[in-house]
User: What shape does this take?
Amino acid sequence: MREKELAEITEADLIPAWAMLELTHRCNFKCSHCYVVKEKIKELSSAEVKDVLDQLAAAGCLFLAFTGGELFLRKDVFELLAYAVKKRFVVTVLTNAFLLDAAAARKLKALRIHEVSTSLYSLKAGVFDKVTGVAGSFTKVMGALRALKKAGVRVRIKTPLMTVNYAEEKSLAAFAKKNGFSVLFDPVLSPKNDGSVKNTGQKIKAGVLEEVVQRHCGGWSFSDKYPERNVLCSAGKNFAAVSPSGEVLPCLQLPLSAGTLREKSFNEIWKNSPVLKKIRGLKLSALKECAGCKNIRYCNRCPGLALLENGSLYGKSVSACEIAAVRSGCCNG
Amino acid sequence: MVCKIKKGVAAREIKGRYYVVLPKEMKLVKLNKTGSFIFGLLSARVPEKLIPQKLAARYKVSPACAGRDLAEFIRELKKAGVLS
Assistant: This one.
Protein backbone atom coordinates (compact mmCIF):
# COMPACT_ATOMS: atom_id res chain seq x y z
CA MET A 1 0.00 0.00 0.00
CA ARG A 2 2.80 2.39 0.92
CA GLU A 3 4.45 1.86 -2.44
CA LYS A 4 1.24 2.88 -4.17
CA GLU A 5 1.01 5.98 -2.02
CA LEU A 6 4.67 6.77 -2.64
CA ALA A 7 4.12 6.30 -6.36
CA GLU A 8 1.24 8.77 -6.36
CA ILE A 9 3.08 11.41 -4.30
CA THR A 10 6.28 11.17 -6.28
CA GLU A 11 4.54 11.11 -9.66
CA ALA A 12 2.64 14.26 -8.79
CA ASP A 13 5.79 15.98 -7.53
CA LEU A 14 8.13 14.59 -10.19
CA ILE A 15 10.44 12.92 -7.68
CA PRO A 16 12.42 10.01 -9.21
CA ALA A 17 11.76 7.54 -6.40
CA TRP A 18 12.49 4.66 -8.82
CA ALA A 19 15.52 4.47 -11.09
CA MET A 20 17.48 2.07 -13.22
CA LEU A 21 21.18 2.40 -13.73
CA GLU A 22 22.80 0.59 -16.63
CA LEU A 23 26.40 -0.03 -15.69
CA THR A 24 27.49 -1.40 -19.04
CA HIS A 25 26.18 -2.53 -22.41
CA ARG A 26 28.84 -5.24 -22.61
CA CYS A 27 27.44 -8.72 -22.23
CA ASN A 28 28.70 -12.28 -22.19
CA PHE A 29 25.41 -13.58 -23.63
CA LYS A 30 24.18 -13.12 -27.18
CA CYS A 31 20.46 -13.38 -26.55
CA SER A 32 18.42 -13.42 -29.71
CA HIS A 33 15.73 -11.14 -28.22
CA CYS A 34 18.00 -8.56 -26.54
CA TYR A 35 16.92 -4.92 -27.02
CA VAL A 36 20.27 -3.35 -26.21
CA VAL A 37 22.08 -1.74 -29.10
CA LYS A 38 25.78 -2.12 -28.49
CA GLU A 39 27.74 0.96 -29.39
CA LYS A 40 31.26 2.00 -28.49
CA ILE A 41 30.79 4.19 -25.48
CA LYS A 42 32.92 5.40 -22.63
CA GLU A 43 31.33 3.92 -19.53
CA LEU A 44 31.07 6.00 -16.40
CA SER A 45 34.02 5.43 -14.09
CA SER A 46 33.57 4.16 -10.53
CA ALA A 47 33.84 7.72 -9.21
CA GLU A 48 31.33 8.97 -11.77
CA VAL A 49 28.84 6.23 -10.89
CA LYS A 50 29.19 7.06 -7.20
CA ASP A 51 28.53 10.69 -8.00
CA VAL A 52 25.40 9.66 -9.93
CA LEU A 53 24.29 7.64 -6.90
CA ASP A 54 24.80 10.67 -4.65
CA GLN A 55 22.72 12.78 -7.02
CA LEU A 56 19.94 10.20 -7.31
CA ALA A 57 19.74 9.87 -3.52
CA ALA A 58 19.57 13.65 -3.18
CA ALA A 59 16.79 13.74 -5.77
CA GLY A 60 14.71 11.32 -3.67
CA CYS A 61 15.42 8.01 -5.37
CA LEU A 62 14.77 5.05 -3.06
CA PHE A 63 14.36 2.05 -5.35
CA LEU A 64 17.39 1.50 -7.56
CA ALA A 65 17.95 -1.32 -10.01
CA PHE A 66 21.42 -1.95 -11.41
CA THR A 67 21.40 -3.52 -14.84
CA GLY A 68 23.33 -3.87 -18.08
CA GLY A 69 24.42 -5.47 -20.41
CA GLU A 70 25.86 -7.80 -17.84
CA LEU A 71 26.91 -5.71 -14.87
CA PHE A 72 29.17 -8.36 -13.36
CA LEU A 73 31.54 -7.79 -16.27
CA ARG A 74 32.51 -4.60 -14.49
CA LYS A 75 35.35 -5.13 -12.06
CA ASP A 76 34.03 -2.49 -9.67
CA VAL A 77 30.51 -3.87 -9.42
CA PHE A 78 30.66 -4.93 -5.77
CA GLU A 79 32.22 -1.61 -4.81
CA LEU A 80 29.36 0.21 -6.55
CA LEU A 81 26.68 -2.01 -5.02
CA ALA A 82 28.18 -1.50 -1.57
CA TYR A 83 28.16 2.24 -2.13
CA ALA A 84 24.51 2.16 -3.17
CA VAL A 85 23.54 0.15 -0.09
CA LYS A 86 25.47 2.64 2.04
CA LYS A 87 23.47 5.44 0.42
CA ARG A 88 20.36 3.57 1.65
CA PHE A 89 18.83 2.63 -1.68
CA VAL A 90 16.68 -0.47 -2.02
CA VAL A 91 19.10 -2.19 -4.39
CA THR A 92 17.99 -4.69 -6.99
CA VAL A 93 20.46 -6.38 -9.30
CA LEU A 94 19.43 -7.48 -12.78
CA THR A 95 21.95 -10.00 -14.05
CA ASN A 96 22.14 -13.01 -16.31
CA ALA A 97 23.85 -14.71 -13.33
CA PHE A 98 26.45 -16.43 -15.50
CA LEU A 99 29.33 -15.07 -13.44
CA LEU A 100 27.77 -15.61 -10.02
CA ASP A 101 29.40 -18.33 -7.98
CA ALA A 102 28.96 -19.22 -4.30
CA ALA A 103 31.39 -16.53 -3.15
CA ALA A 104 29.61 -13.84 -5.17
CA ALA A 105 26.24 -14.98 -3.84
CA ARG A 106 27.51 -14.73 -0.27
CA LYS A 107 28.90 -11.26 -1.01
CA LEU A 108 25.51 -10.13 -2.33
CA LYS A 109 23.85 -11.45 0.80
CA ALA A 110 26.40 -9.72 3.03
CA LEU A 111 25.84 -6.48 1.14
CA ARG A 112 22.10 -6.79 1.85
CA ILE A 113 21.04 -6.54 -1.76
CA HIS A 114 17.25 -6.48 -1.83
CA GLU A 115 16.83 -8.85 -4.75
CA VAL A 116 18.64 -10.47 -7.62
CA SER A 117 16.58 -10.69 -10.74
CA THR A 118 17.61 -13.06 -13.48
CA SER A 119 16.19 -14.44 -16.69
CA LEU A 120 15.47 -18.13 -16.81
CA TYR A 121 14.37 -18.93 -20.32
CA SER A 122 13.90 -22.63 -19.97
CA LEU A 123 14.54 -25.66 -17.80
CA LYS A 124 15.98 -27.39 -20.84
CA ALA A 125 19.68 -26.77 -21.38
CA GLY A 126 19.35 -26.91 -25.15
CA VAL A 127 16.61 -24.30 -25.29
CA PHE A 128 18.27 -22.03 -22.75
CA ASP A 129 21.65 -22.13 -24.46
CA LYS A 130 20.03 -21.51 -27.82
CA VAL A 131 18.36 -18.34 -26.49
CA THR A 132 21.55 -17.02 -24.87
CA GLY A 133 23.78 -18.10 -27.73
CA VAL A 134 26.29 -19.44 -25.21
CA ALA A 135 26.94 -23.15 -24.77
CA GLY A 136 26.95 -24.17 -21.13
CA SER A 137 25.09 -21.07 -19.96
CA PHE A 138 22.17 -23.11 -18.57
CA THR A 139 24.46 -25.12 -16.30
CA LYS A 140 26.18 -21.97 -15.05
CA VAL A 141 22.94 -20.08 -14.40
CA MET A 142 21.34 -23.03 -12.58
CA GLY A 143 24.47 -23.23 -10.44
CA ALA A 144 24.16 -19.51 -9.69
CA LEU A 145 20.52 -19.91 -8.71
CA ARG A 146 21.46 -22.70 -6.31
CA ALA A 147 24.21 -20.54 -4.84
CA LEU A 148 21.89 -17.56 -4.41
CA LYS A 149 19.28 -19.73 -2.74
CA LYS A 150 21.88 -21.24 -0.40
CA ALA A 151 23.20 -17.80 0.50
CA GLY A 152 19.67 -16.64 1.31
CA VAL A 153 19.47 -14.01 -1.42
CA ARG A 154 16.00 -13.08 -2.61
CA VAL A 155 15.62 -14.12 -6.25
CA ARG A 156 13.17 -13.13 -8.92
CA ILE A 157 13.00 -15.04 -12.14
CA LYS A 158 11.92 -13.10 -15.19
CA THR A 159 10.98 -15.02 -18.25
CA PRO A 160 10.10 -13.49 -21.57
CA LEU A 161 7.69 -15.93 -23.17
CA MET A 162 8.73 -16.74 -26.70
CA THR A 163 7.92 -19.35 -29.31
CA VAL A 164 10.69 -21.57 -27.93
CA ASN A 165 9.60 -21.55 -24.29
CA TYR A 166 5.96 -20.50 -23.82
CA ALA A 167 4.96 -24.12 -23.27
CA GLU A 168 7.27 -24.24 -20.26
CA GLU A 169 5.50 -21.54 -18.27
CA LYS A 170 3.91 -23.99 -15.87
CA SER A 171 7.09 -25.89 -15.16
CA LEU A 172 9.09 -22.66 -14.75
CA ALA A 173 6.49 -21.39 -12.28
CA ALA A 174 6.67 -24.67 -10.38
CA PHE A 175 10.46 -24.49 -10.32
CA ALA A 176 10.31 -20.95 -8.93
CA LYS A 177 7.77 -21.90 -6.28
CA LYS A 178 9.75 -24.94 -5.19
CA ASN A 179 12.85 -22.79 -4.72
CA GLY A 180 11.13 -19.84 -3.07
CA PHE A 181 11.78 -17.51 -6.00
CA SER A 182 9.24 -15.05 -7.31
CA VAL A 183 8.54 -15.23 -11.01
CA LEU A 184 7.37 -12.90 -13.72
CA PHE A 185 6.35 -13.89 -17.23
CA ASP A 186 6.07 -11.43 -20.08
CA PRO A 187 4.96 -12.21 -23.61
CA VAL A 188 6.23 -8.86 -24.92
CA LEU A 189 9.52 -8.66 -26.76
CA SER A 190 10.79 -5.12 -27.10
CA PRO A 191 12.30 -4.07 -30.38
CA LYS A 192 15.90 -2.99 -30.25
CA ASN A 193 16.53 0.47 -28.90
CA ASP A 194 17.18 1.72 -32.44
CA GLY A 195 13.74 0.56 -33.56
CA SER A 196 14.97 -2.53 -35.38
CA VAL A 197 12.74 -5.58 -34.93
CA LYS A 198 15.30 -8.18 -35.96
CA ASN A 199 15.39 -9.38 -32.33
CA THR A 200 11.67 -10.15 -32.16
CA GLY A 201 11.65 -13.24 -34.36
CA GLN A 202 10.79 -15.40 -31.35
CA LYS A 203 7.71 -13.33 -30.53
CA ILE A 204 4.70 -15.55 -29.88
CA LYS A 205 2.05 -15.39 -32.55
CA ALA A 206 -1.62 -14.46 -32.27
CA GLY A 207 -3.23 -17.83 -31.51
CA VAL A 208 -0.58 -18.73 -28.96
CA LEU A 209 -0.63 -15.27 -27.41
CA GLU A 210 -4.29 -15.81 -26.62
CA GLU A 211 -3.46 -19.04 -24.83
CA VAL A 212 -0.62 -17.42 -22.87
CA VAL A 213 -2.53 -14.31 -21.85
CA GLN A 214 -5.63 -16.28 -20.88
CA ARG A 215 -3.60 -18.26 -18.33
CA HIS A 216 -3.45 -15.09 -16.27
CA CYS A 217 -7.12 -14.16 -16.54
CA GLY A 218 -7.88 -14.61 -12.88
CA GLY A 219 -5.07 -12.40 -11.66
CA TRP A 220 -6.08 -9.12 -13.27
CA SER A 221 -7.77 -6.17 -11.76
CA PHE A 222 -8.73 -3.22 -13.86
CA SER A 223 -9.74 0.29 -13.07
CA ASP A 224 -11.75 2.69 -15.16
CA LYS A 225 -10.94 5.51 -12.81
CA TYR A 226 -7.70 6.58 -14.43
CA PRO A 227 -7.68 5.23 -18.01
CA GLU A 228 -4.78 7.54 -18.86
CA ARG A 229 -2.62 5.61 -16.40
CA ASN A 230 -3.18 2.50 -18.49
CA VAL A 231 -1.74 4.01 -21.63
CA LEU A 232 0.72 6.52 -20.23
CA CYS A 233 3.27 5.65 -17.60
CA SER A 234 5.49 7.02 -14.88
CA ALA A 235 8.63 7.24 -17.03
CA GLY A 236 10.21 10.64 -16.56
CA LYS A 237 7.82 11.44 -13.72
CA ASN A 238 8.82 9.27 -10.78
CA PHE A 239 11.01 6.95 -12.79
CA ALA A 240 14.41 7.72 -14.26
CA ALA A 241 17.09 5.74 -16.02
CA VAL A 242 20.77 6.35 -16.57
CA SER A 243 22.76 4.78 -19.39
CA PRO A 244 26.32 3.42 -19.00
CA SER A 245 27.73 6.66 -20.42
CA GLY A 246 25.63 8.86 -18.14
CA GLU A 247 22.72 9.78 -20.39
CA VAL A 248 19.56 10.43 -18.38
CA LEU A 249 16.57 8.72 -19.95
CA PRO A 250 12.89 8.68 -18.95
CA CYS A 251 13.14 4.88 -19.01
CA LEU A 252 15.43 2.26 -20.52
CA GLN A 253 12.52 1.39 -22.77
CA LEU A 254 12.25 5.00 -23.87
CA PRO A 255 15.69 5.72 -25.27
CA LEU A 256 15.40 9.48 -25.59
CA SER A 257 18.33 11.26 -23.99
CA ALA A 258 17.31 14.06 -21.67
CA GLY A 259 20.92 15.11 -21.16
CA THR A 260 24.25 13.76 -20.09
CA LEU A 261 25.53 13.67 -16.53
CA ARG A 262 29.01 14.36 -17.82
CA GLU A 263 27.82 17.84 -18.74
CA LYS A 264 24.99 18.69 -16.37
CA SER A 265 23.78 17.67 -12.93
CA PHE A 266 20.95 15.17 -12.57
CA ASN A 267 18.84 17.83 -10.92
CA GLU A 268 19.32 20.26 -13.78
CA ILE A 269 18.46 17.63 -16.39
CA TRP A 270 15.50 16.29 -14.41
CA LYS A 271 14.02 19.75 -13.91
CA ASN A 272 14.73 21.41 -17.23
CA SER A 273 15.03 18.82 -19.97
CA PRO A 274 12.66 19.52 -22.88
CA VAL A 275 12.53 15.77 -23.55
CA LEU A 276 11.26 15.06 -20.05
CA LYS A 277 8.83 17.97 -20.24
CA LYS A 278 7.40 16.53 -23.44
CA ILE A 279 7.00 13.06 -21.90
CA ARG A 280 5.37 14.50 -18.80
CA GLY A 281 3.04 16.56 -20.92
CA LEU A 282 1.62 13.54 -22.75
CA LYS A 283 -2.12 13.43 -22.27
CA LEU A 284 -4.63 10.78 -23.14
CA SER A 285 -6.37 13.20 -25.51
CA ALA A 286 -3.17 13.42 -27.59
CA LEU A 287 -3.20 9.68 -28.17
CA LYS A 288 -5.74 9.75 -30.97
CA GLU A 289 -5.65 6.02 -31.59
CA CYS A 290 -5.95 5.10 -27.92
CA ALA A 291 -8.29 7.69 -26.44
CA GLY A 292 -11.45 6.12 -27.85
CA CYS A 293 -10.31 2.51 -27.80
CA LYS A 294 -12.79 0.11 -26.27
CA ASN A 295 -9.99 -1.96 -24.80
CA ILE A 296 -8.31 0.88 -22.95
CA ARG A 297 -9.13 -0.53 -19.52
CA TYR A 298 -7.31 -3.75 -20.40
CA CYS A 299 -4.30 -2.02 -21.88
CA ASN A 300 -0.76 -1.63 -20.58
CA ARG A 301 0.52 0.52 -23.40
CA CYS A 302 4.14 1.44 -22.99
CA PRO A 303 5.04 4.78 -24.62
CA GLY A 304 8.55 3.47 -25.25
CA LEU A 305 7.24 0.44 -27.10
CA ALA A 306 4.87 2.67 -29.06
CA LEU A 307 7.83 4.79 -30.09
CA LEU A 308 10.01 1.82 -31.02
CA GLU A 309 7.26 -0.12 -32.76
CA ASN A 310 5.59 2.71 -34.63
CA GLY A 311 7.95 5.63 -34.41
CA SER A 312 5.58 7.81 -32.41
CA LEU A 313 5.15 8.52 -28.72
CA TYR A 314 1.55 9.36 -29.53
CA GLY A 315 0.76 6.20 -31.44
CA LYS A 316 -0.47 2.84 -30.34
CA SER A 317 1.75 -0.02 -29.35
CA VAL A 318 0.93 -3.05 -31.45
CA SER A 319 2.05 -5.44 -28.68
CA ALA A 320 -0.16 -3.70 -26.13
CA CYS A 321 -3.12 -3.69 -28.54
CA GLU A 322 -2.80 -7.43 -29.13
CA ILE A 323 -2.68 -8.21 -25.42
CA ALA A 324 -5.48 -5.79 -24.53
CA ALA A 325 -7.72 -7.40 -27.15
CA VAL A 326 -7.12 -10.86 -25.71
CA ARG A 327 -7.67 -9.62 -22.16
CA SER A 328 -10.88 -7.92 -23.19
CA GLY A 329 -12.13 -11.10 -24.81
CA CYS A 330 -11.07 -13.08 -21.79
CA CYS A 331 -12.87 -10.84 -19.32
CA ASN A 332 -15.98 -10.22 -21.38
CA GLY A 333 -16.31 -13.48 -23.21
CA MET B 1 25.07 6.47 23.38
CA VAL B 2 24.66 6.64 19.62
CA CYS B 3 21.82 4.62 18.17
CA LYS B 4 22.89 3.53 14.70
CA ILE B 5 20.75 2.82 11.70
CA LYS B 6 21.77 -0.67 10.65
CA LYS B 7 23.78 -1.33 7.52
CA GLY B 8 21.54 -2.19 4.62
CA VAL B 9 18.44 -0.44 5.93
CA ALA B 10 16.97 1.42 2.99
CA ALA B 11 15.43 4.79 3.68
CA ARG B 12 14.82 8.08 1.95
CA GLU B 13 13.43 11.43 2.97
CA ILE B 14 10.78 12.44 0.48
CA LYS B 15 8.77 15.62 0.97
CA GLY B 16 9.77 15.88 4.61
CA ARG B 17 8.83 12.33 5.53
CA TYR B 18 11.07 9.31 5.78
CA TYR B 19 10.15 6.16 3.90
CA VAL B 20 11.91 3.21 5.48
CA VAL B 21 12.04 -0.41 4.39
CA LEU B 22 11.73 -2.60 7.50
CA PRO B 23 14.42 -5.24 7.00
CA LYS B 24 12.68 -8.13 8.75
CA GLU B 25 9.39 -7.84 6.90
CA MET B 26 10.75 -6.13 3.77
CA LYS B 27 7.88 -3.71 4.17
CA LEU B 28 7.90 -0.05 3.20
CA VAL B 29 6.63 2.24 5.95
CA LYS B 30 6.17 5.99 6.07
CA LEU B 31 7.20 7.64 9.31
CA ASN B 32 5.04 10.39 10.74
CA LYS B 33 6.40 13.91 11.12
CA THR B 34 7.90 13.34 14.55
CA GLY B 35 9.32 9.97 13.56
CA SER B 36 10.83 11.53 10.46
CA PHE B 37 12.39 14.30 12.53
CA ILE B 38 13.97 11.74 14.87
CA PHE B 39 15.05 9.50 11.98
CA GLY B 40 16.73 12.50 10.36
CA LEU B 41 18.68 13.14 13.56
CA LEU B 42 19.65 9.48 13.82
CA SER B 43 20.76 9.55 10.17
CA ALA B 44 22.95 12.52 11.02
CA ARG B 45 24.37 10.47 13.92
CA VAL B 46 23.12 12.82 16.59
CA PRO B 47 23.65 11.08 19.98
CA GLU B 48 20.45 9.70 21.47
CA LYS B 49 20.85 11.73 24.66
CA LEU B 50 20.70 15.00 22.69
CA ILE B 51 17.53 14.16 20.82
CA PRO B 52 14.96 14.79 23.61
CA GLN B 53 16.06 18.43 23.88
CA LYS B 54 15.71 18.89 20.12
CA LEU B 55 12.32 17.17 20.15
CA ALA B 56 11.15 19.25 23.10
CA ALA B 57 12.19 22.47 21.40
CA ARG B 58 10.56 21.58 18.11
CA TYR B 59 7.27 20.22 19.41
CA LYS B 60 6.94 22.38 22.57
CA VAL B 61 6.77 19.45 24.96
CA SER B 62 8.75 18.78 28.11
CA PRO B 63 12.12 17.07 27.69
CA ALA B 64 10.84 14.26 29.92
CA CYS B 65 7.85 13.63 27.67
CA ALA B 66 10.07 13.84 24.60
CA GLY B 67 12.47 11.36 26.19
CA ARG B 68 9.66 8.86 26.82
CA ASP B 69 8.37 9.16 23.27
CA LEU B 70 11.88 8.81 21.89
CA ALA B 71 12.55 5.69 23.97
CA GLU B 72 9.34 4.11 22.69
CA PHE B 73 10.16 5.00 19.08
CA ILE B 74 13.68 3.64 19.36
CA ARG B 75 12.37 0.44 20.94
CA GLU B 76 10.03 -0.03 17.97
CA LEU B 77 12.78 0.62 15.44
CA LYS B 78 15.10 -1.83 17.18
CA LYS B 79 12.36 -4.44 17.24
CA ALA B 80 11.84 -3.92 13.50
CA GLY B 81 15.57 -4.39 12.88
CA VAL B 82 16.15 -0.80 11.78
CA LEU B 83 18.44 0.28 14.62
CA SER B 84 21.30 -1.48 16.31
About this structure: Chain A has 14 helices and nine strands. The CA atoms of residues 16 and 258 of chain A lie 14 Å apart. Chain A has a mean pLDDT of 92. The interface with chain B takes residues 2-3, 5-6, 9-10, 13, 15, 17, 57, 60-62, 85-86, 88-91, 111-112, 114, 154 of chain A (CB under 8 Å).
